């Protein structure tokens, strides 16, 4: 296990602050194997003293950028791009202004000046460090932890140095190895001595194994924090808590490295190994309310959307704690108490090649079952379900399972879809659909403002800046507040005004915006109470996409493109804004975004092509999101303050729509009879493109 320090860029005159901080951290938590610096002003006198040996840092130093000809025994400059292996075996990939070559396929850490989540995931990195101008940010994207560090000594920053421990897991799994040796374990329940003895024995006789995956209860209610520091010989991944009694042992419910070779995966997600093996996981047990140890229908739907966007071809392994309900149908029966209908639905949606679960203290290996209807659908890979017993159980049922598996990405379709002779029908064929609240058809009177709050007034009656604040001094304030009482955008609310509605689908309705930038400024709104684009259930997301495609086709006939944006801050119900612009103005959009962003000292980032918004912005995270013509998606995580009219300001820019006098929606209000006329006009024109018409 190696202890590592990483710091932000060191500007002129800040070297002394770094040295003092490093000495303090080493004194409290050291020693560390090495320090990574994301850049250092080359003429800084402290750096010169370090290079000459006059100043000691007590550990090797790696600096992103610089001149490699100035390397010393203790200082390494990481110029251009490449990969370096530390004495502890940690693979560090780095990139400055020169892109990494395709010959670099994996690493433990990836460092770069600019954030590049797509490349970090492609490299199967566990950590990605990048630079930030002002604030410290940390986020988890599946198994990848991204840390953005501000300038060293920045007065606005809470944190500019990051200490952590890691094992070189990536170097233990060769990238070219296709066949993987995997161990699966049932409920450990704190029986670490029995667990470790057996794992070490099996690994010694039949290993080495690439991974150990644990389902069910890893800890017992009596487990103490010091017991968590177990030394496991195989890289081990565990699911989260299934009861409130052990949640205190999980310091970060979204996943983190708990100790040497021990990683908690998180609530749900997809883990992709360097060999391409895809492992889907869902922690907790089914409940009606979500908590650190439970999952709900809404949690499941959001996870399904994430999977559909990132692993449309399917997954190799699904890990859950509860068994899927009805799994024994068409196969040998067994007594089991703990099961989940939602897990059954997840198995149907993901169609994993293997599904492992626990909690029932019995070993059960079901016959493989089909994931298609014979003679009606194309053959698909079969699923094999294995229920594992608890470690050290009295009946001596099997709790450790060894598996040799080639990831599906390395198999041809014929081999992957081969149906074994003992295959059965799916046990979930007649599974009832999860209960979902219906929406009242009757709804009346509501104003559809485009989610803009009135601007504040400064001193002397002058208009203040249009900012929402989130705490003081740049620190994060309280979580987003949710509207109490009836929601003004749920169609189940009897106070809803239907006068501006253009179309109503199964899950989404479309309306003209009151006070819109243009007379054909559109809002897409979920019928059910769904807060943000990142938290939509699959049905709603699919219908949103249908309306977006229809609007693109509709406006394209008029020589226009569409810009889509969402502000998920101080809102309780999603309002997705759709604004048409002339195609001739497309080229001016990005410069307008940059211009307005610079005005407010903000920096929007481009989302990687394959990344879903749900991955980048988990539920509850405030953000601004914009889709440009051509598919580019921009994102900004709201941390301290945000201009509420930002989306309108970009589109009203003099180089785009040139409507800077219409940024404030109140300046755009029109009489009710004109609204009625415009709504009818748009509804009639849009009717041939309306996806809701094809649903009726």
From TrEMBL:
<comment type="similarity">
    <text>Belongs to the CWF19 family.</text>
</comment>
<feature type="region of interest" description="Disordered">
    <location>
        <begin position="450"/>
        <end position="480"/>
    </location>
</feature>
<feature type="domain" description="Cwf19-like protein C-terminal">
    <location>
        <begin position="604"/>
        <end position="690"/>
    </location>
</feature>
<dbReference type="Pfam" id="PF04676">
    <property type="entry name" value="CwfJ_C_2"/>
</dbReference>
<dbReference type="InterPro" id="IPR029052">
    <property type="entry name" value="Metallo-depent_PP-like"/>
</dbReference>
<feature type="domain" description="Cwf19-like C-terminal">
    <location>
        <begin position="482"/>
        <end position="591"/>
    </location>
</feature>
<protein>
    <recommendedName>
        <fullName>CWF19-like protein 1</fullName>
    </recommendedName>
</protein>
<dbReference type="GO" id="GO:0061632">
    <property type="term" value="F:RNA lariat debranching enzyme activator activity"/>
</dbReference>
<feature type="compositionally biased region" description="Basic and acidic residues">
    <location>
        <begin position="463"/>
        <end position="473"/>
    </location>
</feature>
<dbReference type="InterPro" id="IPR006768">
    <property type="entry name" value="Cwf19-like_C_dom-1"/>
</dbReference>
<dbReference type="GO" id="GO:0000398">
    <property type="term" value="P:mRNA splicing, via spliceosome"/>
</dbReference>
<dbReference type="InterPro" id="IPR040194">
    <property type="entry name" value="Cwf19-like"/>
</dbReference>
<dbReference type="InterPro" id="IPR036265">
    <property type="entry name" value="HIT-like_sf"/>
</dbReference>
<dbReference type="InterPro" id="IPR006767">
    <property type="entry name" value="Cwf19-like_C_dom-2"/>
</dbReference>
<dbReference type="Pfam" id="PF04677">
    <property type="entry name" value="CwfJ_C_1"/>
</dbReference>
<dbReference type="GO" id="GO:0071014">
    <property type="term" value="C:post-mRNA release spliceosomal complex"/>
</dbReference>
């Amino acid at each position: 296990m190696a202890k590592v320090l990483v710091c932000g860029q060191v500007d002129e005159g800040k070297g002394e602050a770094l040295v003092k901080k490093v000495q303090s951290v080493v004194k409290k938590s050291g020693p560390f194997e090495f320090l990574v610096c994301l850049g250092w002003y080359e003429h800084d006198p402290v750096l010169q003293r370090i290079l000459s040996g006059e100043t000691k840092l007590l550990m090797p130093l790696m600096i992103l950028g610089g001149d490699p000809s100035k390397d010393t025994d203790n200082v390494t400059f990481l110029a251009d791009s490449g990969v370096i292996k530390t004495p502890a075996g940690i693979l560090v990939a780095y990139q400055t202004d020169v892109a990494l070559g395709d010959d670099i396929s994996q690493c433990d850490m990836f460092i770069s000046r600019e954030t590049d989540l797509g490349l970090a995931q492609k490299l199967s990195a566990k950590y990605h460090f990048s630079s930030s101008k002002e604030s410290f940010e940390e986020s988890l994207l599946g198994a990848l932890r991204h840390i953005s560090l501000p300038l060293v000594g920045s007065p606005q920053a809470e944190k500019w140095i990051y200490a952590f421990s890691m094992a070189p897991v990536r170097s233990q799994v060769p990238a070219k190895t296709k066949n993987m040796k995997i161990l699966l374990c049932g409920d450990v329940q704190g029986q670490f001595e029995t667990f470790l003895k057996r794992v070490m024995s099996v690994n010694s006789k039949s290993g080495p194994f690439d991974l150990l995956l644990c389902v069910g209860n890893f800890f017992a209610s009596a487990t103490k924090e010091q017991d968590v520091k177990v030394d496991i010989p195989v890289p081990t991944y565990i699911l989260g808590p299934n009861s409130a009694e052990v949640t205190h042992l999980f310091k970060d419910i979204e996943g983190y490295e708990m100790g040497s070779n021990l990683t908690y995966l998180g609530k749900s997600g997809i883990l992709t190994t360097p060999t391409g093996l895809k492992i889907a996981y869902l922690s907790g047990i089914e409940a009606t309310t979500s908590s650190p140890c439970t999952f709900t229908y809404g949690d499941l739907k959001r996870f399904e959307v994430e999977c559909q966007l990132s692993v449309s071809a399917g997954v190799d392994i699904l890990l859950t704690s509860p068994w899927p309900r009805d799994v024994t149908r068409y196969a040998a029966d067994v007594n089991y108490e703990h099961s989940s209908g939602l897990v059954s639905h997840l198995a149907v949606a993901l169609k994993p090649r293997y599904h492992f679960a626990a909690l029932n203290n019995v070993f059960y290996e079901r016959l493989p079952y089909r994931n298609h209807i014979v003679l009606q659908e194309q053959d698909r890979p079969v699923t094999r379900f294995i229920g594992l017993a608890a470690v050290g159980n009295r009946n001596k049922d099997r709790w450790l399972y060894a598996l040799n598996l080639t990831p599906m990405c390395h198999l041809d379709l014929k081999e992957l879809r081969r149906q074994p002779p003992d295959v059965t029908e799916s046990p979930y064929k007649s599974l009832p659909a999860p209960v979902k609240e219906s929406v009242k058809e009757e709804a009346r009177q509501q104003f559809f403002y485009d989610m803009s709050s009135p601007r504040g007034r400064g001193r002397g009656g002058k208009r203040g800046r249009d900012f929402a604040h989130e705490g003081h001094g740049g620190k994060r304030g309280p979580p987003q507040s949710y509207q109490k009482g009836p929601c003004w955008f749920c169609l189940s609310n009897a106070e809803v005004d239907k006068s501006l509605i253009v179309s109503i689908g199964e899950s989404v309705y479309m309306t003209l915006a009151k006070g819109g930038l243009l007379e054909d400024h559109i809002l897409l709104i979920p019928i059910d109470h769904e807060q943000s684009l990142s938290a939509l259930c699959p049905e709603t997301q699919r219908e949103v996409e249908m309306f977006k495609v229809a609007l693109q086709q509709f406006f394209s006939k008029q020589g226009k493109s569409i810009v889509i944006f969402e502000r998920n801050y101080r809102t309780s119900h999603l309002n997705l804004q759709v604004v048409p612009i002339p195609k001739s103005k497309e080229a001016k959009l990005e410069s307008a975004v940059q211009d307005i962003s610079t005005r407010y000292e903000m920096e929007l980032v481009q989302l990687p092509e394959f990344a879903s918004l749900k991955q980048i912005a988990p539920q509850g995270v405030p953000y601004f999101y914009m889709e440009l013509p051509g598919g580019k998606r921009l994102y900004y995580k709201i941390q301290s303050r945000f201009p509420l009219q930002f989306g309108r300001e970009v589109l009203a820019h003099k180089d785009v729509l040139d409507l800077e006098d219409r940024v404030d929606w109140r300046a755009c209000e029109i009489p009710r009879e004109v609204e009625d006329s415009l709504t009818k006009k748009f509804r009639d024109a849009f009717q041939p493109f309306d996806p809701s018409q094809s649903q009726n």
